[in-house]
Structure to design on (694 residues):
DNA sequence: TAGCAAGAGTTT
DNA sequence: AAACTCTTGCTA
């Protein structure tokens, strides 16, 4: 592949490094307006073509070599459609889609996406959920603060080539979003719901029915702390709370309903916990510090991705993991990131190698501490399902001196990943191309049938051999359930098959109604405009400070997302409506109107509710000093409300709204028929975090 | 039982 | 921020 790169934000050519290419040498792409240094192009255009030149990113697909140079013709064809004033927007979209569908069918043989089915799903949403770059149905949608939606891959390709403005409206994209774009969960679940309603195959539908990606922890830990000292030192010093599942510590594979007498659901993909200790209590990943759970002689059961090793590389469905060790941690140097010696295949690294050789299923959890991945949760620790280690090897780490152990993890779970809109789990996929393998030593891969494999007949992943027998006793405070105690899951898991049910996917996290004027914050959470802005109505964006009669520099006030507590104050300064979501909501409401007029009335806009919310005085409630007192009560509160705690937002009727700020507190906002989300809040809403990314 | 571990709160 | 300190759980 030719190493064609554009000029960066400062106008510096990323190939030759020349600071300010002269106007003569500067070429601007006629499609995306990105500047390029003409002498550094592998295939520069003739002078006569410079005005209509399309850059290598727009005219071809550099990451999909199977797509031939026909890209230029495609762009020309798309432009011809755009220029045709006789066509309506819908017709233009339809024609663009047709052209691009032809290309995808030819260039991506391993892509099992059925284009006509995709088209159906697009139609359900009035074609609003198509990516502005690839024109296809949004895949892992991310939303810019200006309210435009793109596939994550398209967005990354766009920004990695130096663009820092929205591809649709040219407004600047915040640095933080360029670094770590967040998946828009509302769009993901809406598309999935639409797929489910199209899917008449009960087996496929059943495999992921009810896979919620924000599962409330109905049962709070019974005993998270055991000693007085632990209470003083916070959770870091806490001994483990009760283990709720009946799996042995060396249990391989998913945690099923039969291992979960408390809830009878098992650990589902997308389940999120506040921290590693809570994750441990549900058996997904037992060690509370270490990233790898396993035994060198038998294999590894689970890993955590939490950003501790800079060599890691996360692509969602597959990732490259780094082994542990190689660091000098003597003398309580817990945080030493520097490598002091080579990693070798011993201890946990050997356990992972064993799982690789035998093709064992490995549970994967991602932590919010992983700051370089779009697939990491915003908060807490999330279970992402089963992966298999397809290969492992050693190579010099990015620090450049010592070797690290490397593992290629590929997802193979029967439930879809939290970031995809797929209505089914994984299918066997070809291994990704790993360039670093050519410099690798000690390459291992399994040479026999994997223990965890895909059954083509049944269409699901399962044990191909008997799972390895446990060598450890079950540690749990609960006896395994008896036949009498075993309750069947009281869930109908009925998926939406009409516009009104689909509308439920667009609920505002504040008023629980279908969103009116939807806003998507950079963290990926969506709200009614009135609800979100109403929540901060009485707050100014900066605090004037004075000291001894002098006026000091104004301090920015942090405003946290009501759902995930990310600072969204920059977004709130100029929030833009997500028009695509709004169009979809309106079109679904129109469809609903024509079918059942009476029912449609119940899907009211949230603005009225938001009006009520504004009655609550946020600033007074936000006084940090209130929290200390409040804190001692928090556990009691949680217990008293059947595990469904609503912190801050009192109830659905909107009597009171306040930000979530209980120290270490976890709250669940949920309704019986609406989506539920766990939210964690910190006590220092306005105390810390007064620095912002610029 | 020593030593390690991709944690977390507090202090500097 | 980084350093320091406090811990527990697990492997070997």
């Amino acid at each position: 592949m030719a190493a064609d790169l554009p000029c960066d934000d400062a106008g510096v050519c990323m190939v030759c490094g020349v600071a300010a290419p002269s106007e003569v040498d500067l070429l601007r792409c006629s499609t995306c307006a990105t500047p390029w240094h003409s002498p550094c192009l592998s295939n520069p255009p003739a002078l006569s073509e410079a005005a209509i030149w399309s850059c290598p990113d727009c005219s071809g697909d550099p990451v999909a070599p199977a797509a031939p140079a026909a890209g230029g013709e495609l762009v020309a064809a798309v432009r011809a459609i755009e220029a045709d004033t006789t066509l309506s927007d819908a017709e233009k979209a339809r024609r663009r889609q047709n052209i691009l569908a032809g290309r995808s069918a030819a260039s991506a043989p391993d892509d099992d996406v059925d284009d006509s089915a995709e088209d159906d799903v697009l139609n359900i949403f009035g074609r609003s959920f198509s990516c502005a770059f690839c024109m296809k149905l949004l895949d892992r949608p991310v939303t810019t603060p200006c309210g435009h939606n793109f596939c994550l891959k398209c967005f990354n390709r766009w920004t990695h080539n130096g663009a820092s403005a929205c591809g649709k409206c040219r407004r600047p994209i915040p640095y933080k979003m360029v670094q770590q774009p967040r998946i828009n969960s509302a769009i993901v679940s809406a598309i999935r719901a639409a797929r489910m309603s199209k899917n008449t195959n009960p087996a496929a539908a059943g495999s992921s029915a009810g896979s919620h990606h924000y599962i409330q922890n109905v049962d709070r830990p019974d005993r998270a702390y055991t000693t007085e000292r632990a209470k003083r030192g916070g959770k870091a010093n806490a001994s483990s709370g009760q283990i709720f599942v009946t799996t042995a510590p060396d249990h391989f594979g998913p945690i099923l309903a039969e291992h979960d007498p408390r809830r009878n659901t098992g650990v589902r993909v997308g389940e999120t916990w506040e921290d590693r200790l809570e994750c441990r209590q549900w058996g997904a990943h037992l060690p509370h510090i270490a990233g790898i759970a396993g035994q060198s002689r038998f294999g590894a059961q689970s890993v955590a991705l939490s950003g501790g090793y800079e060599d890691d590389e996360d692509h969602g469905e597959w990732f490259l993991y780094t082994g542990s060790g190689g660091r000098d941690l003597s003398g309580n140097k817990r945080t030493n990131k520097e490598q002091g010696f080579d990693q070798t295949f011993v201890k946990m690294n050997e356990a992972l190698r064993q799982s690789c050789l035998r093709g064992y299923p490995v549970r994967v959890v991602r932590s919010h501490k992983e700051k370089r991945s779009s697939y990491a949760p915003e908060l807490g620790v999330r279970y992402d399902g089963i992966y298999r280690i397809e290969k492992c090897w050693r190579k010099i780490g990015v620090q450049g001196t010592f070797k690290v152990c490397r593992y290629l993890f590929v997802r193979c779970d029967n439930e879809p990943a939290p970031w995809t809109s797929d209505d089914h789990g994984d299918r066997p996929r070809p291994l990704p191309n790993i360039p670093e393998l050519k410099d690798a030593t000690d390459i291992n891969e399994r040479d026999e049938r994997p223990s965890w494999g895909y059954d083509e007949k049944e269409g699901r992943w399962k044990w191909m051999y008997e799972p390895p027998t446990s060598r450890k006793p079950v540690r749990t405070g609960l006896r395994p359930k008896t036949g009498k105690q075993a309750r069947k899951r009281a869930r109908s898991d009925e998926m939406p098959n009409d516009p009104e049910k689909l509308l439920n996917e667009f609920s505002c996290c504040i008023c629980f109604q279908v969103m009116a004027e939807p806003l998507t914050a950079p963290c990926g959470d969506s709200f009614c405009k009135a609800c979100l802005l109403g929540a901060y109505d009485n707050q100014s964006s900066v605090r004037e400070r004075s000291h001894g009669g002098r006026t000091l520099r104004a301090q920015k006030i942090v405003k946290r997302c009501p759902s995930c507590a990310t600072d969204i104050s920059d977004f709130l300064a100029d929030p833009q409506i997500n028009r695509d979501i709004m169009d979809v909501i309106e079109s679904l409401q129109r469809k609903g109107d024509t079918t059942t007029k009476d029912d449609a009335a119940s899907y009211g806009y949230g603005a009225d509710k938001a009006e009520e919310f504004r009655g609550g005085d946020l600033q007074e409630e936000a006084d940090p000093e209130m929290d200390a007192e409040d804190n001692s009560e928090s556990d009691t509160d949680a217990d008293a409300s059947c595990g469904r705690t609503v912190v801050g937002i009192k109830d659905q009727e909107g009597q009171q709204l306040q930000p979530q700020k209980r120290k270490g507190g976890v709250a669940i906002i949920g309704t019986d028929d609406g989506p539920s989300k766990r939210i964690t809040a910190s006590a220092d809403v306005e105390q810390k975090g007064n620095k912002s990314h610029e």
In short: Residues 233-238, 275-277, 287-292, 303-309, 312, 322, 324-325, 329-330, 334, 347-348, 367, 369-370 of chain A lie near DNA strand B (CB under 10 Å from a C1'). Residues 128 and 207 of chain A are 28 Å apart (CA to CA). The longest helix of chain A spans residues 89-107. The domain at 244-328+335-463 of chain A is CATH 2.30.280.10 (PUA domain-like).
